[in-house]
Structures are given as C-alpha cells and as structure tokens.
Design goal:
This protein is of the alpha+beta class. The chain has helices spanning 19-26, 30-37, 76-82, 87-93, 123-129, 134-140; strands spanning 8-12, 54-58, 67-69, 107-109, 112-116, 157-161, 168-172, 183-189, 195-202, 207-215, 224-230, 240-248, 255-264. The chain has 2 domains: 8-161, Membrane-bound Lytic Murein Transglycosylase D, Chain A, CATH 3.10.350; 168-264, Immunoglobulin-like, CATH 2.60.40.10. It contains 6 helices and 13 strands. The strands form 4 sheets. It has a 4-stranded mixed beta sheet with strand order 2-1-3-4. The chain is globular, with a radius of gyration of 19 Å. It comes from Thalassobacillus devorans.
C-alpha cells in the first residue's frame, strides 16, 4: 500500500512561479512534482502550470504529515474546512493566537497525508481503505490539476484527510499502516490534566492492546504533544483493526473525543 511516508507540501501556484523555483524552494525535484501531479498528457502539456492551481510538492522530509502553504486570500476557516477539521485544532497545533490572522506563505501543519495511486484504484476503494469519504477526498484535492472523480492516474499523489476530533489529532500511525507490538502512537491533544488514553482493537472487537494513558506536553486549554507505545497484550484475531485515541470525562469517566485510526496487523 503506497502511503507516502515523507512530508509533502500543498502549494498554490503564484504568477511567476516555475516548477524549478517551486522544487528549489521546498527541496524537491521537477520530476517528483510532475509525477505527483500528473503534469503531462493527457492532463496537460508536460510541466505546464497555471496560477492558482494547487500542487503537491513531495520531499524527503519527516514526518509524513502534510503542510499547507498559505495563499493570498486564505483564511483559517477555509483551510480547516478543506481538511474536515476545526479552526480550534488548526490554530492550536500551529500556535496561532489569533485565528483571524494568518500570513501569506505561512506553513500550516494540517491533518492530511498523501497516497500514491495504484493501478486499479478508485476513489471509493481509497476512501474505504483509509476510513474517509469520497467527498472528503474531493474537497481536500480541489483545484489540483489532474484530479477527477472518475479518472485517477497511477503514480498520482492524492491528499487523504486524517480523522480528528476537536481536541485530538493523531499523527502516528497513519491510517492503513501495519502495526506491531511496541508501535508508537503520537499526536496533539487538548485534554483535561493532559491525560490521553489509547487502545488497540482488531475487527473482531478483541482488545489487542488494553487501555493505557500518556501525558501530553501541555494541558488544556493548550494543545500538547503526546507520544506513547502500543504494547500488544494478545495477538490480533483479524488482519485489520483500529487504534483508538481519546480522553475520559472528569465527571463520569465516559470516553470523549475518540479518534479511530484504521490499521492492519
């Protein structure tokens, strides 16, 4: 499953940009950008780009979570809507004090990663595999050359929005990743007393890694970074399952802000 394990940037072309200048700015290559965006026939003449088209710029950087480059006229609300997340979360993980004030060319960490299309893929199959919807994928990829609902090209990089809640954003593992005992689980959370719970279940609802907790670097109202491990308490009974990351209510201990990440074993 060709999940792109390196960071990509989502960049909106400005007048005067060339593939060379974009590649040099982000430490990518012309060839990588052309491949990721299918910048050749039948979509377009090879390497031809137009202002306000949106490009995926692949790099060799880590982590794999995507960054969005702010374009003139962007607002945080519109960016959040593109990735099916909240303004609060986007502002929190990017340390933005005033959600109404973002800057041209500012880099925003966004809950999304990229996937390289394989022969035989459809948007329905991709959406099902990663626990999202066709509509969410279409919104995240709008204004990109080469992106169509009915035709997707092998080798093309598709933006996949990550599941989030208002208060939790899981960066590792990515949906579709294969995990084993000791796998790290990481992300950002705005939770009471900075306590983040997690567990792993297989698709037969068997608890593979029982509930454990870790502590985020900051407590609410800030979004703190958390990192923990997922030790297996028993072997999975199916080839697929999910990692659940959540908090518990201080009032009645109920689960809150549950984020489900579909994985394989």
């Amino acid at each position: 499953m060709p999940i792109i394990q390196q960071k990509s940037y989502m960049y909106t072309i400005k007048r005067g940009d060339t593939l060379y200048s974009i590649a040099r700015r982000f430490g990518s290559t012309i060839e990588a950008i052309e491949q990721a965006n299918h910048l050749y026939p039948p979509v377009t003449d090879r390497g031809l780009i137009f202002p306000e088209d949106v490009l995926i710029v692949p790099t060799g950087e880590q982590p794999a979570i995507m960054s969005y480059v702010v374009f003139p006229g962007d607002g945080l609300r519109g960016v959040a809507a593109s990735f099916q997340t909240s303004v609060e979360l986007l502002a929190g993980i990017n340390n933005i004090n005033n959600p109404n004030l973002i800057y041209i060319d500012q880099l925003l960490l966004v809950p999304a990663f990229t996937y390289e299309v394989e022969t035989g893929d459809t948007l329905y199959r991709i959406a099902t595999r990663f626990g999202t919807t066709i509509e969410a994928i279409e919104k995240a990829n709008s204004d990109r050359p080469g992106f169509q609902r009915d035709i997707i090209w092998p080798g093309y990089h598709i933006v996949i929005p990550l599941p989030t809640s208002t208060n939790i954003f899981v960066t590792t593992p990515l949906p579709g990743n294969k995990i084993r005992g000791g796998q790290r689980v990481e992300g950002y959370a705005r939770v009471f007393e900075a306590s983040v719970q997690h567990q792993v279940r297989d698709n037969n609802n068997i608890v593979v890694s029982r509930e454990r907790f870790t502590t985020a670097s900051e407590g609410a109202p800030a979004y703190g970074f958390f990192s923990s491990t997922l030790p297996f308490d028993r072997q999975p009974t199916s080839s697929t399952g999910e990692v659940g990351v959540y908090s518990r209510s201080a009032k009645d201990n109920s689960i809150q802000d549950l984020v489900r990440i579909p994985i394989t074993f």
